[in-house]
Amino acid sequence: MSTLHRISETQKKTKTSKPSELIEIEPTPKNKTESVKEMTESKKVENLKEIDESEEDTKIVKGRKRKYNSDEERKIARRLQQREYRQRKAKELESLRKLYNKQLKEEKKQQKVVEKEKIEEEDSIEEILKEDEN
């Protein structure tokens, strides 16, 4: 790292003096004692370990959170959903069959009633005709 200092050739008394030269000065390195070096190195190692652990634990994932952590979990969940769907459909079909059978029975009963009424009407007509003949 180097710093730049402005040095003007002739100093003016005005506040708005423009520098004519730029001189580059290198800072002197600071001497560290061995104990300070050891402490900073140990802190660096500890920090690196903490960073590694935190990176393993929390992966940066953009977007929506995943519902399943692995393909295996996703497949198991899909199988369960399919099984439940099939069971619901089977129950629905069974209830529809029951309704259909019930309606068929009612229709047959109505047909029988209608047939009995027709027979009774025919019988009554025949009886009336017989009485008229007599």
Label the overall shape.
rod-shaped
How many DSSP helices? 2
| SSE pattern | EEHH
The major β-sheet equals: 2 strands, antiparallel
In the predicted model, the low-confidence regions spanning at least 5 consecutive residues are none
CA radius of gyration is 50 Å
| Proportion of helical residues | 55-70%
What strand line-up does the widest sheet have? 1-2
Distance between the termini: 140 Å
The chain-level structural class is mainly alpha
Number of strands: 2
**Mean pLDDT across all residues, rounded?**
77
List keywords for this structure.
about 130 residues, mainly alpha, two-stranded antiparallel sheet, about 5% strand
Question: How do the strands and helices of this protein lay out in sequence?
Answer:
Blueprint: E1 3-7, E2 21-25, H1 34-57, H2 71-133
Antiparallel strand pairs: 1-2
